[in-house]
Write a structure and sequence with these properties.
2 helices, 2 domains, three-stranded antiparallel sheet, alpha+beta, 25% helix, elongated
Length: 97
């Protein structure tokens, strides 16, 4: 929306979308500049990791579980529908030699 503004409101069908938006070099330059501006905005945070694996020494199979707690230091991106802190839990069977 920052790059296109009201350009999409003036487009009433699919044919006009291709000509007025995607076919317009100036509009696409604005979209590209907006992407790169948002892409290179630094975000910082921290992860706290915890995990364990159980494996019998003779067998090459093991069971593992791990988790990651994500802590952002700055505000989340307003354009992304994600919250701040989060928890990620993973587990499975590992083939180890």
């Amino acid at each position: 929306m920052n790059a296109l503004g009201d350009t999409l409101n003036k487009t009433y069908n699919l044919a006009n979308l291709g000509q007025n938006v995607f076919g317009n070099i100036d509009v696409m330059k604005l979209v590209g500049e907006e992407f790169f501006k948002e892409l290179f905005t630094p975000h910082s945070g921290m992860h706290i990791l915890l995990g364990a694996m159980v494996k019998i020494p003779i067998l090459p199979l093991g069971i593992y579980a791990d988790g990651k707690f994500m802590i952002p230091f700055d505000k989340p991106d307003a354009n992304v529908e994600l919250g701040g802190a989060g928890l990620f839990v993973d587990g499975g069977v590992a083939l180890t030699f």
